[in-house]
Amino acid sequence: MIRLSSLTKRFGEQTVLDGIDLSIEEGERVVVIGPSGTGKSTLLRCINFLDRPDHGSIKIGDLTVTAERANRRGILALRRRTAFVFQNYSLFANRTVRENITEGLIVVRGWPASKARERADEILRDIGLSDRAEAYPSALSGGQQQRVGIGRAMALDADLMLFDEPTSALDPEWVGEVLDLMRRVAETRQTMLIVTHEMQFAREIADRIVFMDAGHIVEMGSPAAIFDDPKDRRTKNFLRRVS
Amino acid sequence: MRALDYEYMLGLVPILLGYVPLTLMMAGIAMACALVLSSLLAIERVIKVPVLDRFVVLFISFFRGTPLLVQLFLFYYGLPQVFAFLTQIDGVTAAIMGLTLHFSAYMSESIRAAIVGIDRSQWEASEAIGMTRLQMMRRIILPQATRVAAPTLVNYLIDMIKSTSLAFTLGVTEMMGATQKEAAGSFLYFEAFLVVAVLYWIIVEVLSFFQKRLETYLNRAYAR
């Protein structure tokens, strides 16, 4: 069980997240949609303190971190229960594909190298990149890099996997393979919180859609409820624009 | 203009070559120590540990702001007068200490610049995966910063090798000191110093050859 309580983030004068409350069940797949600049990415980045929230708390299982009182240890614990997939992949540039996957296991989890390597090779088979294990990220296509980014997140076996617009930086030809991989992750009942502009994909895999606007959660519900029968004017306007 | 005494020059070469190991040893040890110290200084400058940061800034300012020769004299002739236990320090040790501290100040600035220049995505990915700041530095940031800083660091190594010649002013008979003695005996100053100049030059050229290989190696992750 994951619970965000009155999560608030300001950048200077601007309030980007205005008291977000959201609970996510174990195994639930939640997709956040909404206009650009409404705090969707900031929400994800506040959950693992890549951006430090100004107020509110984050609860993952038995771990609760409160914004005002968060210390380094609490933040580290939070990060170790989450995995993050970046819009721009953010693979470790000085590490090979396999090392990108083993890095977290060895350094953060303290796994022996041989065990981490075995796990990495399993994941490489899963993401279809066994033949590129020794390659460096700079030698991969965007789609391949993002698959490694997802593989790196999968290896961590996190309580919550966060996806920050994972296909937005990709050339159109690579979007399909990344969405396919995300579908397969979703099938494992991994708890996922996804920010995306891929509406068709959202409808397919989401248990719940959250519509955000101007730092607020405006409306949420099943894909059918949000896409076919939106209640709020802002949701309707947004869906009309993107469809 | 008189003709050069080539025979004398050729005869000098094996004598001076005998002092090359000492020169390389001083530069090698000083460089190894300076790499460690300057990395620590650079990391501190990036993380900015309260209070400690003031001292690091002062340290860098002093060792960049005063001549190496003055620092060497301060260590070798000056400090033992204040701290009795330092009277045991020989010229070689003093030279290595001076070179280490002096060059650490410079190198820390280029390492700091390299660290700060590492793409934000690398910091965020390390944070997101749950690394401590130390792990992040050691595994992700410093290896990438090394590649960026390598050309300047090799430059400092070259400068350091040449600067070992100052150890001669502390009474160390290294390449420069040996040349000075030879020249004083033969009065063939031009020949003697020309030979030692060429020797330094050759050492630096050999180093430049390895610099290219080092850079190719460090660039392996970035070649398409």
CATH C-level of chain A: Alpha Beta
Q: Topology as H/E string of chain A?
A: EEEHEEHEHHHEHEHEEHH
Give the N-to-C terminal Cα separation of chain A: 33 Å
Shape of chain A: globular
Strand content of chain B: under 5%
Structural class of chain B: mainly alpha
Total E-strand runs of chain A: 10
CATH topology heading of chain B:
MetI-like fold
The major β-sheet of chain B equals: none
Based on CA atoms alone, the radius of gyration of chain A comes out at 18 Å
Largest sheet, spatial ordering of strands of chain A:
6-7-8-3-9-10
Helices and strands of chain B, in order, run as HHHHHHHHH
| CATH topology assignment of chain A | Rossmann fold
User: How much beta of chain A, percentage-wise?
Assistant: 25-35%
Poorly predicted runs of chain B: none
**Biggest beta sheet attributes of chain A:** 6 strands, mixed
How many structural domains in the coordinates of chain B? 1
Low-confidence stretches of chain A: none
Protein name (chain A): Amino acid ABC transporter ATP-binding protein
Keywords (chain A): ATP-binding, Nucleotide-binding, Transport
Pfam family, one (chain A): ABC_tran
Family (chain A): Belongs to the ABC transporter superfamily.
Write structural notes for this entry.
The complex is a heterodimer of chains A (243) and B (224). The model of chain A has no long low-confidence stretch (mean pLDDT 95). With 243 residues, chain A is α/β, with parallel strands linked by helices. Chain A has helices at 40-47, 72-81, 97-108, 113-126, 142-155, 172-187, 199-205, 223-228, 233-242, and strands at 2-11, 14-24, 29-33, 55-60, 63-66, 82-85, 160-164, 192-195, 208-213, 216-221. In chain A, strand 4 and strand 5 (63-66) form a beta hairpin. Chain A starts with a strand and ends with a helix. Chain A is built from nine helices and ten strands. In chain A, the strands form two sheets. Chain A has a six-stranded mixed beta sheet, with helices on both faces. Chain A has a single domain (2-242), classed as Rossmann fold. Chain B is an all-alpha fold and 224 residues long. Chain B has a single domain (6-218), classed as MetI-like fold (Orthogonal Bundle). Chain B contains nine helices and no strands. Chain B has helices at 6-17, 20-47, 52-65, 68-82, 91-117, 120-128, 133-163, 175-186, 189-218. In chain B, helix 1 (6-17) packs across helix 9 (189-218), helix 2 (20-47) packs across helix 5 and helix 4 (68-82) packs across helix 5. At the A-B interface, helix 2, strand 6 and helix 3 of A face helix 6 and helix 7 of B.
